[in-house]
Protein: BMP family ABC transporter substrate-binding protein
Organism: Alloyangia mangrovi
Amino acid sequence: MIKLRSAFATGLLAASLPVAAGAFELKSEPKIAFIYASTVQDGGWNEAIDKGRAAVSEELGLDIAVAENIPEEATRLRAAIDLYVQRGYNIIVGTTYGYSEAMSEAAQAYPDVAFFNASGVHNGENMESFYARTYEAWYLAGIAAAEASESGKIGMLAGFPVGVVNWDVNGFARGAQSVKPGIDTTVVYTNSWWDPVKEGQVSEAILDQNADVIATDLSAASALNAAEERGAGAIGYQIDMSAAAPEHILTSVVFNWDAYLTPRIKAVIDGSWEPEEWGWFEGLESGVVDLAPFGPSVSEETKAKIAEAKAQIIAGELQPFAGPLMARDGGEVVAAGEVLPDDALWTMDFFVDGITGTMPAGE
């Protein structure tokens, strides 16, 4: 039976369906396949997951099949899954939210196959979706940005106004405000996950507005290229993007998916895997999301502030969305002494106070 978690893109609340108790059992020797919606060398999301795949392969001593450019279309994905199952593959990893429905149907059709899906919404007896509390790392990146800024204005590029993007934007702003309360964060949504030309143009426009640090929540390095050319601080995402801005990089928010994939796939193989009822959703303490090494301009004092905040987040002493939390429109989102609950994270559709920009209407 499949369980629907809060929807990644639509923000719909989950329907409560029970996940069976007890560990999943493979019926044959493990054969693993990863399926990607585009090339694995995309410079960001897929590349980060594929580094995790390579680490799993090395750690477990198993060859792992890879299918690239399988579009987010149910019939195309299902055909790829069916073919893998027919060939004896019994652990299948999807890599995008857009695979959610087809993978859910496949999991029900193939109960002896273990399914995982990055940023998916479904979970069940033989299926687990996974994502990370990226806003925690973006909070730390916000500290780096604020400490580097002399103008008091920083900027960020984002894709679509969905919960997992909006929490990155707000986490970044909150981190910056924690060290410079009056700092302004300009945010621009590109309404695309991949448009290097547009991202470069938007970055130039933000820098023209006197921002002296720019971050990207996207896979292309265009924002970092623009920052390097203009002498502004740069913050990347998904992988270490320092090569795009070697002189002015501050850090990158990075995924280390092997920290999740290796133990979970090992558990499938040894018969101890029990899919998380609502999917796997952890933060800095897991090591799955973190900051890349700092750039040459980041001071030891800034590094110490970030290290302290990181330790506090891991210890549960610091919550990026603890109250009092005010939305930009003046409304109180979280009262003092309370913390924004997880279901409100997935449906986040507001800017915190201190952000300049327009949030497009949700899809």
